[in-house]
Amino acid sequence: MTEQYDHEVVVIGGGAAGLSAALVLGRARRRTLVVDAGEPRNAPSGHMQGYLSRDGMPPAEFLAVGREEIARYGVELVRDRVVDVTGGFAVTLAGGRTVRARRLVVATGLRDELPAVPGVAERFGRDVLHCPFCHGWEVRDEPFGVLAASAASVHQALMVSQWSKDVRFFLHEVAEEELTDQDLRRLAAAGVEVVPGRVAGLVVEDDRLTGVRLADGTVHARSVVYVAPRPVPRTGLLERLGAELRETPFGAYPVVDPTGLTTVPGVWAAGNAIGFAEQVVHAASGGYRAAAAIVGDLLMADLDAAVPDASEV
Predict the structure, then answer these.
(1) Which of 210, 243, 253, 257 has the fewest CB atoms within 10 Å distance of its CB?
(2) What residues form DSSP beta bridges with 96?
């Protein structure tokens, strides 16, 4: 049955979720191909935190170790991009190669769309941050700025106040009247200073963030700025396959069951491909769950094919 397929499983995406899935599949002796476009979401960060036993490890090193591990079990990895997938599953790569698989794992993640404020993109992952759980400890007690993307950014300002008692919330394009009375009470209780006015850019000296400049020329001395990027899920391939998506405040993501199975039979998704808040440790766990489910699914399909149901004979 499997001779007509190049691989039993193609994993699209070589980040934490994809490599974790590939490791489990390889160890289960399933012929697996990982297609990696080389665009991990956490590439701008020098280190990753909060992953037990890997706390502080550079993301690039983490991925390099993962690639070495899957290679031990015969998993093939190619540096390429999937440009098309059809039912069946025929997977076409940008390099011209087309492979067929019995099952798919989509671990294409998402990209962060940053506020169009001069200096933000250039400093992102260094002293412009988005997640206090990822980086808060490393910058604890420094003067923080929080750049509001919307009134919902109040939550971010309140959260980061646990890592520093010197927090200024720059409203930027958010009008003061958009903040509720509860927002204002909580910000005051947390000691967060609300700063109205549009942010014109960041001040950088000697390759170090030193302040936030407002449109009126006022500069607020800050050494860390938190932003809330707009997540843009990479769901193009899933949509092409007909997967059902669900709208969330952070974008549209595929509807999945607890193992990551989408509404398309034979297609699983994992990592940031299924949600905005999937940290590295969550992504690795999701890849594991998806792979384990696929191993069982393939086994049952093969057994059923070997011994047909008597009622169908």
Answers:
(1) 257
(2) none
Name residue, tokens 């204002």.
184
Q: 145, 225 in Cβ contact below 8 A?
A: yes
Give residue 62's identity as a one-letter amino acid code.
Answer: F
Question: According to the model, what pLDDT value does residue 311 have?
Answer: 65
Is the confidence at residue 312, as pLDDT, over 70? no
Angle between helices 16-27 and 280-306 (to 10 degrees): 40
For 18-32, write each residue's pLDDT tens digit: 999 999 999 999 999
In single-letter form, the type of residue at position 49 comes to Q
Q: What is the mean pLDDT of the chain?
A: 95
pLDDT one-digit tens code per residue, 46-96: 999 999 999 999 999 999 999 999 999 999 999 999 999 998 899 999 999
Cβ 51 vs Cβ 281: under 8 Å: yes
- For residue 182, pLDDT over 80 is answered with yes
Q: Which amino acid is at 15?
A: G
